[in-house]
Protein backbone atom coordinates (compact mmCIF):
# COMPACT_ATOMS: atom_id res chain seq x y z
CA UNK A 1 0.00 0.00 0.00
CA UNK A 2 1.58 3.30 -1.12
CA UNK A 3 -0.60 5.39 1.22
CA UNK A 4 0.06 5.45 4.96
CA UNK A 5 -1.50 2.76 7.13
CA UNK A 6 -3.62 4.06 10.03
CA UNK A 7 -4.58 0.70 11.57
CA UNK A 8 -2.64 -2.57 11.54
CA UNK A 9 -3.47 -5.58 13.72
CA UNK A 10 -3.94 -9.34 13.66
CA UNK A 11 -7.41 -10.80 14.21
CA UNK A 12 -9.90 -13.38 12.98
CA UNK A 13 -11.31 -12.64 9.56
CA UNK A 14 -13.66 -13.99 6.93
CA UNK A 15 -14.36 -13.13 3.29
CA UNK A 16 -15.96 -15.12 0.51
CA UNK A 17 -12.77 -15.00 -1.57
CA UNK A 18 -10.89 -16.99 1.08
CA UNK A 19 -12.68 -20.15 -0.05
CA UNK A 20 -13.59 -21.36 3.44
CA UNK A 21 -16.71 -21.12 5.57
CA UNK A 22 -14.69 -20.82 8.76
CA UNK A 23 -12.90 -17.67 10.01
CA UNK A 24 -9.11 -17.66 9.83
CA UNK A 25 -6.32 -15.67 11.41
CA UNK A 26 -5.39 -12.67 9.29
CA UNK A 27 -3.71 -9.29 9.29
CA UNK A 28 -5.94 -6.25 8.94
CA UNK A 29 -4.55 -3.06 7.40
CA UNK A 30 -6.49 0.15 6.93
CA UNK A 31 -5.49 3.31 5.08
CA UNK A 32 -7.48 6.35 4.05
CA UNK A 33 -8.25 4.66 0.72
CA UNK A 34 -8.62 0.93 1.28
CA UNK A 35 -8.98 -1.99 3.65
CA UNK A 36 -6.71 -5.00 3.16
CA UNK A 37 -7.27 -8.34 4.88
CA UNK A 38 -4.31 -10.68 4.40
CA UNK A 39 -4.09 -14.37 5.33
CA UNK A 40 -1.56 -17.12 4.66
CA UNK A 41 -3.53 -18.10 1.55
CA UNK A 42 -4.23 -14.70 0.01
CA UNK A 43 -5.73 -11.28 0.61
CA UNK A 44 -8.90 -9.30 0.08
CA UNK A 45 -8.53 -5.63 -0.89
CA UNK A 46 -11.55 -3.39 -0.40
CA UNK A 47 -11.47 0.17 -1.81
CA UNK A 48 -13.26 2.35 0.73
CA UNK A 49 -15.07 4.09 -2.13
CA UNK A 50 -16.91 0.79 -2.73
CA UNK A 51 -18.01 0.34 0.90
CA UNK A 52 -21.73 1.01 1.31
CA UNK A 53 -22.38 -0.22 4.85
CA UNK A 54 -20.61 -1.03 8.12
CA UNK A 55 -22.24 -3.02 10.90
CA UNK A 56 -20.66 -3.06 14.35
CA UNK A 57 -21.36 -5.98 16.67
CA UNK A 58 -23.91 -7.87 14.54
CA UNK A 59 -22.87 -11.03 12.72
CA UNK A 60 -24.72 -12.75 9.82
CA UNK A 61 -26.56 -15.89 10.98
CA UNK A 62 -24.32 -18.47 9.31
CA UNK A 63 -21.22 -17.02 10.99
CA UNK A 64 -22.71 -16.14 14.38
CA UNK A 65 -21.24 -19.22 16.09
CA UNK A 66 -17.73 -18.18 15.05
CA UNK A 67 -17.64 -14.49 15.95
CA UNK A 68 -18.42 -12.44 19.05
CA UNK A 69 -17.86 -8.69 18.81
CA UNK A 70 -17.01 -7.94 15.21
CA UNK A 71 -17.28 -5.51 12.33
CA UNK A 72 -18.93 -6.42 9.05
CA UNK A 73 -17.89 -4.33 6.05
CA UNK A 74 -20.26 -4.52 3.07
CA UNK A 75 -18.95 -3.47 -0.34
CA UNK A 76 -19.55 -3.77 -4.07
CA UNK A 77 -17.32 -5.60 -6.54
CA UNK A 78 -17.97 -6.52 -10.16
CA UNK A 79 -21.63 -5.68 -9.86
CA UNK A 80 -22.23 -7.88 -6.81
CA UNK A 81 -22.43 -7.18 -3.11
CA UNK A 82 -19.92 -8.81 -0.77
CA UNK A 83 -18.96 -8.61 2.87
CA UNK A 84 -15.89 -9.11 5.03
CA UNK A 85 -15.88 -9.75 8.78
CA UNK A 86 -13.16 -8.70 11.19
CA UNK A 87 -12.76 -9.57 14.85
CA UNK A 88 -9.91 -8.58 17.16
CA UNK A 89 -8.95 -7.45 20.63
CA UNK A 90 -11.28 -4.79 22.07
CA UNK A 91 -8.62 -2.07 21.98
CA UNK A 92 -7.75 -2.87 18.36
CA UNK A 93 -11.40 -2.98 17.34
CA UNK A 94 -12.31 0.32 19.03
CA UNK A 95 -9.49 2.04 17.15
CA UNK A 96 -10.36 0.25 13.89
CA UNK A 97 -14.04 1.24 14.07
CA UNK A 98 -13.26 4.89 14.76
CA UNK A 99 -10.63 5.14 12.01
CA UNK A 100 -12.80 3.24 9.50
CA UNK A 101 -15.73 5.62 9.98
CA UNK A 102 -13.35 8.60 9.95
CA UNK A 103 -12.01 7.52 6.55
CA UNK A 104 -15.47 6.73 5.14
CA UNK A 105 -16.96 10.06 6.23
CA UNK A 106 -13.89 12.16 5.42
CA UNK A 107 -15.31 13.86 2.33
CA UNK A 108 -19.00 13.73 3.17
CA UNK A 109 -20.83 17.06 3.16
CA UNK A 110 -24.31 17.25 4.68
CA UNK A 111 -27.01 19.87 5.10
CA UNK A 112 -28.05 20.25 8.74
CA UNK A 113 -30.84 21.92 10.67
CA UNK A 114 -29.91 22.15 14.35
CA UNK A 115 -31.77 22.29 16.55
CA UNK A 116 -34.83 21.51 14.45
CA UNK A 117 -36.81 21.03 17.67
CA UNK A 118 -36.17 21.65 21.35
CA UNK A 119 -38.48 19.51 23.45
CA UNK A 120 -41.56 19.41 21.25
CA UNK A 121 -41.13 22.97 20.00
CA UNK A 122 -40.17 23.59 16.38
CA UNK A 123 -37.39 26.18 16.11
CA UNK A 124 -36.56 28.70 13.40
CA UNK A 125 -33.08 27.24 12.86
CA UNK A 126 -31.63 27.76 9.39
CA UNK A 127 -30.23 25.07 7.08
CA UNK A 128 -26.46 24.98 6.63
CA UNK A 129 -23.95 22.83 4.78
CA UNK A 130 -21.47 21.13 7.11
CA UNK A 131 -18.65 18.62 7.08
CA UNK A 132 -18.61 15.57 9.34
CA UNK A 133 -15.85 14.38 11.65
CA UNK A 134 -15.83 11.64 14.26
CA UNK A 135 -13.97 10.97 17.49
CA UNK A 136 -14.48 8.42 20.26
CA UNK A 137 -18.09 8.59 21.44
CA UNK A 138 -19.14 11.61 19.41
CA UNK A 139 -19.74 13.07 15.98
CA UNK A 140 -19.12 16.69 15.01
CA UNK A 141 -20.78 18.82 12.36
CA UNK A 142 -18.25 21.50 11.41
CA UNK A 143 -17.40 24.20 8.87
CA UNK A 144 -20.83 25.77 9.24
CA UNK A 145 -22.06 28.96 10.97
CA UNK A 146 -23.08 27.08 14.12
CA UNK A 147 -20.93 23.93 14.57
CA UNK A 148 -22.25 21.34 17.03
CA UNK A 149 -21.26 18.03 18.56
CA UNK A 150 -23.51 15.05 19.27
CA UNK A 151 -22.64 12.73 22.14
CA UNK A 152 -23.47 9.24 20.83
CA UNK A 153 -24.43 8.08 24.32
CA UNK A 154 -27.10 10.82 24.39
CA UNK A 155 -28.94 9.69 21.23
CA UNK A 156 -32.42 8.52 22.23
CA UNK A 157 -34.25 8.19 18.91
CA UNK A 158 -33.36 7.83 15.26
CA UNK A 159 -35.18 7.76 11.93
CA UNK A 160 -34.20 7.40 8.27
CA UNK A 161 -36.45 9.36 5.96
CA UNK A 162 -36.47 12.00 3.22
CA UNK A 163 -36.49 15.70 4.04
CA UNK A 164 -36.20 18.96 2.15
CA UNK A 165 -33.33 21.05 3.49
CA UNK A 166 -31.55 23.81 1.62
CA UNK A 167 -34.23 23.62 -1.07
CA UNK A 168 -33.48 19.99 -2.03
CA UNK A 169 -35.23 16.77 -1.04
CA UNK A 170 -32.67 14.15 -0.09
CA UNK A 171 -32.18 11.09 2.13
CA UNK A 172 -32.11 12.28 5.73
CA UNK A 173 -31.33 11.27 9.27
CA UNK A 174 -33.61 12.66 11.96
CA UNK A 175 -32.20 12.00 15.40
CA UNK A 176 -33.13 13.10 18.90
CA UNK A 177 -30.52 13.50 21.59
CA UNK A 178 -30.11 15.02 25.03
CA UNK A 179 -28.20 18.30 25.08
CA UNK A 180 -27.74 20.30 28.28
CA UNK A 181 -30.61 18.40 29.87
CA UNK A 182 -32.98 19.14 26.98
CA UNK A 183 -34.27 16.82 24.29
CA UNK A 184 -33.11 18.17 20.94
CA UNK A 185 -33.97 17.03 17.42
CA UNK A 186 -31.45 17.48 14.62
CA UNK A 187 -31.83 16.77 10.90
CA UNK A 188 -29.05 15.99 8.45
CA UNK A 189 -29.63 15.38 4.75
CA UNK A 190 -26.94 13.50 2.86
CA UNK A 191 -26.02 13.28 -0.84
CA UNK A 192 -26.79 9.56 -1.35
CA UNK A 193 -27.87 6.28 0.24
CA UNK A 194 -24.27 5.21 0.85
CA UNK A 195 -23.61 8.26 3.01
CA UNK A 196 -26.96 7.72 4.73
CA UNK A 197 -25.99 4.15 5.66
CA UNK A 198 -22.55 5.00 6.97
CA UNK A 199 -23.45 8.17 8.87
CA UNK A 200 -26.53 6.49 10.32
CA UNK A 201 -24.53 3.46 11.45
CA UNK A 202 -22.08 5.65 13.36
CA UNK A 203 -24.78 7.71 15.06
CA UNK A 204 -26.54 4.47 16.07
CA UNK A 205 -23.54 2.60 17.50
CA UNK A 206 -24.34 3.26 21.16
CA UNK A 207 -28.08 3.64 20.53
CA UNK A 208 -28.35 0.04 19.30
CA UNK A 209 -26.44 -1.26 22.34
CA UNK A 210 -28.80 0.61 24.67
CA UNK A 211 -31.86 -0.70 22.82
CA UNK A 212 -30.62 -4.27 23.24
CA UNK A 213 -30.44 -3.70 27.01
CA UNK A 214 -33.98 -2.32 27.00
CA UNK A 215 -35.33 -5.42 25.25
CA UNK A 216 -35.07 -7.26 28.57
CA UNK A 217 -37.36 -4.73 30.32
CA UNK A 218 -41.10 -5.01 29.75
CA UNK A 219 -42.77 -2.05 31.50
CA UNK A 220 -46.18 -2.43 33.07
CA UNK A 221 -49.06 -0.17 32.13
CA UNK A 222 -48.61 1.80 35.37
CA UNK A 223 -44.87 2.23 34.78
CA UNK A 224 -45.48 3.44 31.23
CA UNK A 225 -48.10 5.89 32.44
CA UNK A 226 -45.64 7.46 34.87
CA UNK A 227 -42.82 7.57 32.31
CA UNK A 228 -45.09 9.25 29.77
CA UNK A 229 -46.30 11.72 32.43
CA UNK A 230 -42.71 12.73 33.20
CA UNK A 231 -41.96 12.99 29.48
CA UNK A 232 -45.04 15.18 28.91
CA UNK A 233 -43.90 17.47 31.73
CA UNK A 234 -40.67 18.16 29.87
CA UNK A 235 -38.59 15.21 31.08
CA UNK A 236 -38.69 16.08 34.78
CA UNK A 237 -41.62 16.31 37.20
CA UNK A 238 -42.53 16.45 40.87
CA UNK A 239 -44.19 13.32 42.24
CA UNK A 240 -47.41 15.31 42.73
CA UNK A 241 -47.56 15.85 38.97
CA UNK A 242 -47.26 12.15 38.09
CA UNK A 243 -49.51 10.56 40.71
CA UNK A 244 -51.91 8.27 38.89
CA UNK A 245 -53.73 7.05 41.99
CA UNK A 246 -52.37 6.09 45.38
CA UNK A 247 -49.33 8.19 46.36
CA UNK A 248 -47.59 5.27 48.09
CA UNK A 249 -48.11 3.06 45.03
CA UNK A 250 -46.72 5.77 42.74
CA UNK A 251 -43.67 6.10 45.00
CA UNK A 252 -43.08 2.34 44.81
CA UNK A 253 -43.32 2.41 41.02
CA UNK A 254 -40.85 5.30 40.87
CA UNK A 255 -38.45 3.33 43.09
CA UNK A 256 -38.64 0.42 40.64
CA UNK A 257 -38.00 2.76 37.72
CA UNK A 258 -34.95 4.15 39.55
CA UNK A 259 -33.62 0.63 40.09
CA UNK A 260 -34.00 -0.03 36.36
CA UNK A 261 -32.14 3.23 35.64
CA UNK A 262 -35.12 4.67 33.80
CA UNK A 263 -35.67 7.52 36.23
CA UNK A 264 -33.22 9.55 38.32
CA UNK A 265 -33.58 12.33 40.87
CA UNK A 266 -33.48 15.72 39.16
CA UNK A 267 -33.46 19.26 40.49
CA UNK A 268 -37.24 19.54 40.73
CA UNK A 269 -38.33 15.92 40.92
CA UNK A 270 -38.10 12.66 38.99
CA UNK A 271 -36.23 12.96 35.70
CA UNK A 272 -36.12 10.56 32.78
CA UNK A 273 -32.74 9.00 32.10
CA UNK A 274 -31.62 8.33 28.55
CA UNK A 275 -33.06 4.80 28.80
CA UNK A 276 -36.34 6.17 30.12
CA UNK A 277 -36.57 8.59 27.22
CA UNK A 278 -35.85 5.77 24.77
CA UNK A 279 -38.65 3.63 26.20
CA UNK A 280 -41.13 6.51 25.96
CA UNK A 281 -40.03 7.30 22.39
CA UNK A 282 -40.44 3.67 21.37
CA UNK A 283 -43.86 3.47 23.04
CA UNK A 284 -45.15 6.70 21.45
CA UNK A 285 -43.87 5.57 18.06
CA UNK A 286 -45.81 2.29 18.36
CA UNK A 287 -48.97 4.15 19.44
CA UNK A 288 -48.76 6.60 16.54
CA UNK A 289 -47.84 4.00 13.93
Number of domains: 3
Structural class category: alpha+beta
Q: Please compute the radius of gyration using only Cα atoms.
A: 22 Å
CATH architecture of the largest domain: Roll
User: What general outline do the C-alpha atoms trace?
Assistant: globular
CATH superfamily of the largest domain: Pleckstrin-homology domain (PH domain)/Phosphotyrosine-binding domain (PTB)
CATH topology of the largest domain: PH-domain like
How far the N terminus sits from the C terminus, by CA atoms, comes to 50 Å
Largest beta-sheet details: 8 strands, antiparallel
Order of SSEs, N→C? EEEEEEEHEEEEEEEEHHHEHHEEH
Helix content: 25-40%
Low-confidence sequence ranges: 63-67
Mean pLDDT: 87
Q: What percent of residues are in strands?
A: 35-45%
Highest CATH level, the class of the largest domain:
Mainly Beta
Q: Helix tally?
A: 7
Number of strands: 18
